[in-house]
Amino acid sequence: MSKGVLIKDKGLQYVTIAGICLMIFIVGFFSVKNIISSKGSVQAVSNIETKEKLDNKGLDFFLNVIMSSNSFMQVTYAEVCEDNAQKSLIRSALSYIFNSDRIQNYIASKLPSSDKDAVAGEDNEELDGPQIATPVYKTNTTPLLEEIKDAQGIDIPKDKILEDVIIIEEALKTAKTTKTNSRSISLADINKIKGELGYNSKQIVNEDKPYVLIYHTHATEVYLPIKDDNFHSKKKEFSVMKVGEIIANELNKKGHKIKQVQTYHDLPSYNKSYDRSLSTIRSEMKKEKNIKFLIDIHRDGIPSNAAYLSRSKKEAKVDINNKKAATFKFVIGSDCKNKTQLTKFAKYIMSISERMYPGLCKGLVIKPYGRYNLFISDYSMLLEVGSNLNTIEEANHTATLLADVLDVAIKNIIK
Known about the structure:
By secondary structure, this protein is of the alpha/beta class. It has two domains: about 1-110, no CATH class; about 145-410, 3-Layer(aba) Sandwich (Aminopeptidase). Helices cover about 45% and strands about 15% of the residues. The protein contains 14 helices and eleven strands. It has helices at about 1-40, 50-55, 60-70, 70-85, 90-95, 100-110, 145-150, 185-195, 230, 240-255, 275-285, 310-315, 340-355, 390-410, and strands at about 160, 165-170, 180, 210-215, 260, 295-300, 315-320, 325, 330-335, 360-365, 380-385. The strands form two sheets. It has an eight-stranded mixed β-sheet with strand order 1-2-10-9-11-6-4-5, sandwiched between helices. A three-stranded mixed β-sheet has the order 3-7-8. The chain is globular, with a radius of gyration of 25 Å. Mean pLDDT is about 75; it is low at about 1-5, about 40-60, about 65-70, about 75-90, about 100-140 and about 150-175.
């Protein structure tokens, strides 16, 4: 009698395990089918590194068997262990495993991508819903690695190439300049710059209401001496938020009406940063229709083993008025339909910067993909102020100098 019950119980166990395996297979099958229909082919996924990490977790036999059969589940479980240590391991793992969006994002990140499908929602610039402005990355990469993914292996013909970016307008760059003094700029200089660029844009604003919005898609980006968490922290006094605060305060002193949004758009999910900052932009512009100028302030991320590390260190700072300042640059995504207007606007400000503070601006970077929410306005800016090679003092000094540059640039546009 007891023997029969035992056999029955074992049979139930086998049926249960078979049911779980079948469910996992079905979810995986349809996810892969959906991805393949748009991508074409699947690349093999290496899971050696993840397996080594998992083996050190002391998982029980059952979980090891299941996860060893599926690389997606291995990566998923590793992330669950790191981010949800206080939760039930099996419950957390299963909730991640059966999230269809995560499964498809993981598989998509392993597939070859093209410029056309690197950005979601490109067919309609004015969609009301969130739009992703960055490609999907592996789910278990760190923020700094997310930043430097842009510097790996994208082939771009012609022009000067810096990893995956095109730096244009070399005449405005003074990479060899390491020490300089500020210079004045006249109305004649401004008109000359506009004439050379063919830039005669004018924008009507109500100068009694905010017309410049400063925000931070990656607000946790910090400068030295903070090195923890791959140069990311909520310590505002060391972050790009502080840089934006200085720029806002200086511009307000000069008579402009500025609003800075101090929201951490890169928390809790780094990959959804641009979705959240887009929502912020639209919300602020809906509340204040007078906002015309959009400034997204970042800092660059340079990996310690980068082939271009030596060059980056040389170009990271410039001595202006006997004080070190972090250099800055503009970034524009190639998928912006208003790329021409954005490029002229950036060149206009770059030219003013070069006239006032030679060497401070290191150029304009055109990414081979993405929009970075710059399509919202022809007066949008994505500024990378320094990098993780710079100190917060150097970045703060640049903020003051940038405010001088933006003051001149904006005053000669608005009417």
